[in-house]
Amino acid sequence: MSLSPAFLDELRARVSVSSVVGRRVKLVRAGREMKGCCPFHNEKTPSFHVNDDKGFYHCFGCGAHGDVIRFMTDNMGMPFMEAVKQLAGEAGLEVPAASPEAREKAKVADSLTELTARAAAWFQAQLAGDAGTTARAYLDRRGVTPDIAKRFGLGLALDSRTALRSHLKDAEGQALLEAGLIGTSEDGETYDRFRGRLMFPIRDRRGRVVGFGGRALGDVQPKYLNSADGPLFDKGRLLYNLDLAGPAARQSGRLIVVEGYMDVIGLAQAGIAEAVAPLGTAMTETQLALAWRLVDEPILCFDGDGAGVRAAIRAAGRALPLLQPGKSLRIAALPAGQDPDDLCRSGGAAAFEAVLAAAVPLIDHIWTSETAGLELATPERRAQARARLREAAATIADPDVRGLYQAEFNRRFDAAFLAGPTRAAWTPRPRGPAGQKWQPPIPGASAALKALVVRARDPLLTAVLAGLLLRPTLADAHADALAGLQPGDADEAALLSAVLAATSDRGGEQALESTAMADHLRSMGLDGAMRRVCAANALGFSFARAGGDETAAQTDFALALRQISARAALQEGLDEATVQFQHSLDETDFEVQQALRRDLESLDAAMMKLVESRRAD
Questions:
Q1: What are the start-end ranges of the E strands in 23-133?
Q2: What does the alpha-carbon distance between residue 144 and residue 126 come to, in Å, rounded to a whole number?
Q3: Are 399 and 603 in contact (CB under 8 A)?
Q4: CA distance 576 to 596
Q5: Which of 176, 230, 240, 572 is the most buried (most CB within 10 A)?
Q6: Is residue 185 helix, strand or coil?
Q7: Kindly report the CA angle at 274 between 311 and 346, in degrees rounded to 5?
Q8: What whole-number distance in Å separates Cα of residue 366 and Cα of residue 393?
Q9: Alpha carbons 562 and 280: distance in angstroms, whole number
């Protein structure tokens, strides 16, 4: 079966090498790359490197080298098509059926990129020539230096209906049409699509020119014109400047999404290189996925006018269904009437950095958008806002994120708009000499906290440990998350420590199987602890049952770990708030404690739904 290079490129772009290699190799960040012990040969000192920007892995010890597909075929022993199908399933792509037409389409795409590259070079030459005087003057007024213009490949389309067509006279008209370089009138006459415009080459993630954006230099509409969608160009699947912004974003840990080409270029002129822009449309699901491959929380920074505000709201709505644990957005609000380019030219990079520093999380942006002006509104309008908040949270596909959004919206709404039950202010009884106000003794904080955290065994944590005994390989895949757990039960604490130590001691070797792990734990005198933990497991999760679907077991295990971590963070905050209230007996501290208690109850309710949905029939 033959697959087109375009499809395989899309597959590699959607699935990072580190996400697949990380299932077999424990990777750690090393600058722009990640490294670990090579899975292709035995080694104790890591020499295996993964570079997501360039899309490959390489071992400096044995020379193993390849992309994400090659890793699955060489390391996992999968046939090529099976590897492609599995990756396509993870990326949400449909594997195209083998056909002569598909092979022909791949050849066409290759020839089209040659044409767009030639066109880009010709546009650059026109900008540098005598005809580019007006365009160069415009760039100078916008503060774009020749070096920046060259970095972004800016060019000029002559104000002619045939200039580019004549330059590419050896190319067939149909190819030029599919490349988006020419158009056809109603009478069948061809003409240059871009005329009298400053040209912005649009490159894919690998740096290949796949289309153009053109800004009119005169009083012509539309002001901005993109290549027509075709075999090579799809504006909903591209981000302007992604090829240059990707390495900068990985280095800085942030990615900024602005509205237009000149915003990106203006930021680059100010020294901010990690900026991209959609191509005249609201952010699409594919564009969000491209951004999330680089950073966990891209910053959306749209213009400070009404259109920019609406664009931010649309992007937030588009992102909600796609949110995953750790993957979200931040929204930066520009001053009214200014765009990033204006701000950088007037106040420099510092002015724009101040805007980014004030960016708010996605949940805060949605809350503010839906509740602005409701303080004095009628109950009906408040109810309408609450319904919209519930509808927004309900669109989130991930159950953990959805549950926490719903709980947070409920908590905020109750605190802002619903009066709590009237409670008489507490008045301490006088003690001691007449007129002297009695104060409660303040116990040591550490003793109070110790008393609070002594709790019964956590059933979800017990299930996780029972799953580790049955599937020790899960310890290697989730070592960092497991190391952060703090079991209150002595048996569970001893078992977790022993399993993690056994996993760590083996380095890059294959993890112990269930029987070997049990023998190892018995040799440490933990036989009784194993029996007690397995007997105490009352939840029927797939990862704690023998047999069944291994993929489902791995998914359920990761879900359970996330629930435990989220609950632990809330419980720690509640413990501290309870101690604080016991010390102060202050009304404000009481309200803080009760708010945290409600948050914990909401999370517990979501956790029980998860348990019921995942337990054995």
A1: 28-30, 33-36, 48-51, 56-59, 65-66
A2: 17
A3: no
A4: 10
A5: 240
A6: coil
A7: 75
A8: 10
A9: 37
Q: What pLDDT sits at residue 455?
A: 42
Q: What is the DSSP letter of 425?
A: P
The per-residue pLDDT for range 499-518, each reduced to its tens digit, is: 888 876 665 556 678 888 88
The values of phi and psi at residue 271, to 5°, are 95, 10
| d(C-alpha 385, C-alpha 458), whole Å | 37
Query: Hey, what are 112's tokens?
Result: 């089209």
Q: Pick the closest to residue 235 from 209, 211, 267 (CA basis).
A: 211
pLDDT tens by residue, 275-324: 999 987 778 888 998 899 888 999 999 877 777 777 888 888 889 999 99
Q: What is the DSSP letter of 158?
A: -
Distance CA 532, CA 462 (A): 10
Categorise residue 425: left if φ over 0, alpha if ψ from -120 to 50, beta otherwise: beta
Coil vs helix vs strand at 22? coil
Please tell me the distance from the alpha carbon of residue 510 to that of residue 489, in angstroms, as a whole number: 29
- What is the distance between the alpha carbons of residues 118 and 166, in angstroms, rounded to a whole number? 13
Pick from 54, 53, 26, 55: nearest CA to 39: 26
Hey, what are 608's tokens? 């029980």
Over residues 319-351, the pLDDT tens digits come to 999 999 989 999 998 887 788 888 888 888 899
**CA angle 157-160-163, nearest 5°?**
75
Yes or no: say if 454 and 487 are a contact pair by the CB < 8 Å rule. no
Strand spans (E) along 193-264: 197-203, 209-216, 224-226, 256-257
pTM of the model: 0.57
Instruction: Give the residue with greater pLDDT, 310 vs 86.
Output: 86
Mean pLDDT of 160-174: 93
What is the number of other CB atoms lying within 10 angstroms of the CB of residue 12?
Answer: 19
Report DSSP state, residue 236.
Answer: G
Least Cα distance to 303 among 276, 270, 338 occurs for: 338
> Residue 257 carries which DSSP code?
E
Instruction: Say if residues 530 and 521 touch (Cβ distance below 8 Å).
Output: yes
Distance CA 481, CA 557 (A): 11
Amino acid at 444: G
Q: Are 479 and 25 in contact (CB under 8 A)?
A: no
Token output for 73: 């075929």
Q: What is the DSSP string of 487-545?
A: -SSHHHHHHHHHHHHHHHHTTTSPPP-HHHHHHHHHHTT-HHHHHHHHHH-----GGGS
